[in-house]
Every structure is written in C-alpha cells, then in structure tokens.
Amino acid sequence: MTSHRPPLTVAQYGIGPIGAEIARLLLTKSWVKVVAAVDIDPSKIGKDLGEVIGLGRNVGVTVTSELESKPDVVCHSTGSRLRDVADQLKQLMNRGCHVVSTCEELSFPLDAEIREELMQVARAANVTLLGTGVNPGFVMDKLPLTITSVCQDVKSLEIIRIQNASTRREPLQRKVGAGMTADEFRAAVDAGKIKHMGLRESLMMVGNGLGVEFDHVTDEAIEPILADREVVTQFLKVAPGQVAGVHQTIEGMGRINVSLELRMYVGAEAVAADRVIVHGVPDVEMEIKGGVHGDRATAAMVVNAIPRVVQARPGVLTMDDISISFR
Amino acid sequence: MTSHRPPLTVAQYGIGPIGAEIARLLLTKSWVKVVAAVDIDPSKIGKDLGEVIGLGRNVGVTVTSELESKPDVVCHSTGSRLRDVADQLKQLMNRGCHVVSTCEELSFPLDAEIREELMQVARAANVTLLGTGVNPGFVMDKLPLTITSVCQDVKSLEIIRIQNASTRREPLQRKVGAGMTADEFRAAVDAGKIKHMGLRESLMMVGNGLGVEFDHVTDEAIEPILADREVVTQFLKVAPGQVAGVHQTIEGMGRINVSLELRMYVGAEAVAADRVIVHGVPDVEMEIKGGVHGDRATAAMVVNAIPRVVQARPGVLTMDDISISFR
Known about the structure:
Two copies of one chain form a homodimer.
Chain A: E1 8-13, H1 17-26, E2 32-38, H2 49-52, E3 63-64, E4 73-76, H3 82-94, E5 98-101, H4 112-125, E6 128-131, H5 142-147, E7 153-164, H6 170-175, H7 182-190, H8 199-210, E8 216-217, E9 221-226, E10 231-232, E11 237-238, E12 243-253, E13 257-265, E14 273-281, E15 284-289, H9 294-309, E16 315-317
Parallel strand pairs in A: 1-2, 1-4, 2-3, 4-5, 5-6, 6-16, 7-13
Antiparallel strand pairs in A: 7-14, 8-12, 9-12, 10-11, 12-13, 14-15
C-alpha cells in the first residue's frame, strides 16, 4: 500500500499547459512530494511553482532553469518529437531519475537508433523511461490491447476516437483547424501544422502487443471535417462549410488488420466517444460514452503511471509493458 | 515478436469443461507446443488429448495421471478453492514450470498463509504463478482498474456484470439456480451450492490496485432473480415467478467506495453487458455491449497470459501486476 511508504519525490520538467496540469495533480497526491520544477521560460524561472500554475498559493518550490536535485521521478513534458527531447531524457536518467514523459513519439519509439541510445542510458542508470498520455498512451493503444485479451482469436480491430474539441483549450481548437477554409486546412496540413502526433506510434504499439508484424502500413491520412451547421465555442465560431476539425486515420494490414480513426472537431458533443470494435472470437464492442477528455486524462495517465514505473524493470518501456490504474 | 521464437512448451493440467476449452485454444496457437495433458479421471487417462476434448483427431499427446515432463508453462484448471489446489500448484512450480491457473481464489489470494507458502516456492523455483480468467481476472477487476487510469480523482467505482446465462453451458445454468423456486434457491445458497466464486477477490484486487484499504467490506449478498416471463433455453425451462438466476453483490467502503454487482440469469439477452462507472474527475462510463462470454473468454485469458507470464518477475502475481492482450 503506497499510503504507508514515504512519499516519492517528484520533479515537474516543463511547465506548459500539460506540464502545469500535471503539476497541479501531483500536488494533490499524498504519496507524492513535489521537490522541483523546471522550465526554460525566463518569465517562470525564479517564481514559485504555485504562482506559475495559477494555484493562487505558494507551494515552496521555485522554478529553476535546470534540475538541481535528484528526485525519484521526473515528469517530463517539453515536446512531441523524440529527436528534440532525447538529450533532456538522457540527462534526467543519468541523474538517476525514473522519467515519465508526455513526448508522443516516446510512447512507442520508432527511431531505432534513438531508442537504443535511450535504452543503454536507462539500463546503465538502472532507471525506467516511459512515454504515456491519454492518446497516444491509452485510448487508442493500451486500452484496445487490454480489451483484446478476452479473445480466442482476433481477425481485425477498429479503434475509433471521436473527441469534441469544443471543450478543449483554445490552442487545440486552433490546431485541429477549426474556423479555417478547406484550402487553408490543406495548406496547414502540408506545412505540418495540423497533425495529431502519435497515431503511428499507437498503431505500432498495438501491432507489437498482438504479436503482429504488419505487411503494410498506410500513410496517415489527414482530412478536414466540414461543419454542417454553425458551431460556436468559448474561443471561436465556425460557419457552415468551414472546417470544424480533423479526421486522421492510419491502418496496418497483416495477419490482423488494425485501423485507427481519430476525429477531433468542434461541435462533436452528440457523437463524442472512444470505441474499440474487435472482430474475432468473440466479437467485442466497447464504448466509453462521451470519450475521455484529452488534457486532464493525459495528466492523470502520467501521475498514475508513477507508482508502476518505480516498480518496473529498468529500460525504455511502453504502456504495453506495465499495468496501470488510478492511484 | 513471439512468432520468430521457438514455441513455448505447455501442459494442460485438468481437462474438465474449462480445461478442455483451454486445450482446444492452445492447439490453435503457433507459438505454443502442447506437450502434456493431465487429468485424474480414469476414463481420460491413456487416451489422446484430441479425443478427450472432442477434436475429432489425435494430437499426439496422451493424457496421464501426473505431469511427467517439464514444460515451460502449465495451464492449471482443477478447482476453485486455493486450499484444494495449493499442493498441485507447489508441485508444478517445484518442477520449474510457470503456472497460469483458473483457480478463482488464486486471482487475489486472501489466505495470507497459503499465499506466503506459494510465494516462497515460486521464488525458490524462479517461476511465476498467476490466477486468471474472465471473472475473476478481468471484467470485474483488471479492466475496471485499467479504466480508472484516465482519472485525476476517483470517488467511487461501480462494476456491473450482467451475463446472459441462456448462452452458457447447462451446469452453469443449473448453478445459478435457473428453474428453482425461491425457497429451493435460498436452501441451495445456504448449502453453499449457489455462489459465483471470486467476487471478494475481485473487490480486494481493485482496492489494492487503487491503493485503498477498505474500512469495511460487506458480506456477499446472494439473492434470486425471479423470471417475469417464461424463459426457455437449450437445457431448461423457467416459469414466471421461478428463479432465473443469481444476483450477487459486494461492496468495499473507504476513501474510495467500490461496488461489484453480478447478475447471471437466463433470459438476460436484452440487457447483458459489462459496465464500469467511475465517479471521479472525470466521470467515466464504459460498456461492453452484450458482455463478455464467460467460458470462452476464461480460456482466452489463460492462453493470452502465457507470453506475459514467461516474461514477468518470479512470484505469485495477480492480473494487476501484468499487462495483457490477445496473442
């Protein structure tokens, strides 16, 4: 029982919107002692963490530009691309810290070279590195994999996430293209500005968990979802015919076909859901009504992973390597 | 990727209805080589496993009364009570075999003394012992725990399984009391003849996974569900007012309240489902339509656990200690 042990010492590394959400959650946990907070933003450095994350009270932890102590665990949230954050992850592990990161590309590292480097550092330092979040990290990979365990056979697997962007923060509403014309949307896709990160990682984690090597994996298709009515959110207005959001898909074909479909758009309140459809023996159809809210759940996944990570074997793990629950 | 490794050698220990279902499934897996089959029934000993499990073909494995080889893994399915099977489990582990068992009381061993004995044997033999199945083992413990991982806070958890007994085998329909009068049902409950095994184990696994020590755990309530119309199955007929099945509940109260409700009765086709309702931040409501079929899924859980168990740490593990998916 975690409650009888001394609290785990934890640092928050990166205090953007997600990092701040993680820090707020860490501060509510009796089994966590937040001992450090790190960010590169000069406007945050030197301030109390409580002030930076809008708590309305000081928590006695001053934001620094580098990690100066050696906490048990670091919650890392600075970027989506593994290449950009690999050096940070190595530094943190070399200090002797376990690391739980929201880096989407870390959820199932596809770059074999970086993965191997991280694995060597983790093993040498005897620590565990895990990439997690709600997506990638749970609703389109870990949860579907877990559901398939009741099956004697699986022919194909459909994983569908319809997320209502209306209840998400403004940057996300902008990022899915809400309010753009279809042409603006396509230009933004071509410029790499509209893309949910991690869909390929989720697909490959699912394939790996099922023991399937796909014969063929499609390119990710990124299409606009056009509003069929006016949609008004707290932050913006979408006219009929304008873009409401993004429809992104990927599929792996092989002994088992696995398709992932992500629809993230404003005005989706009536149809929002997370769904897993297994065609197999038996067929299984699972639904989470309304779907799991992105930002809050990502912070939850990171924090809930901590007690599992400190007990896991050293190395670079994925969510398919650990058991998880609320803590 | 399991497909490139030599197959795991596996023995089936116990060839009753569930053991036969497991054996049939094992024989379909390319990554498994079934090398032995054990049963105490003189009518099965000496026969080919394929004949005993009704395959209509021989598989080259003769049923014996004792395990004579040392397979990598033994699938054990001989009884529900830990006290009755503990010696078998120790023998199998002392041979150096990992063991995956359907023993319901093994899913979360509540008898501390037996658990400690098994733990010592497992560690000394450097093998892993796991109790699993669909219930206990998945739909009312492992799956709800996994679902809660998206939550920042959990106030209470409702776990509801409504299983349509009409599609289950005859012994199960009889075991839930279908066709009895209410008086006969209560007498059968008092005699210990009507009881789903493992509900308390599921509750305690959930509490443990959530890091909660319950202040109070209710006794298990076992009540009849009376038919409000005539129900006819392949095996029996239930008149209106007669017992259609069983309604069994248990609840743990503490920092988080957890309630488990199992309804297993004939004629439940319209309402059958597995459901998890989390009251927390956020609320989460998950449903598997129609519910997961018991016997088939139990065999699936056992076989799908094998690749995870051979990679797990030694000891007595529960489903909350391992990750799982179809293989």
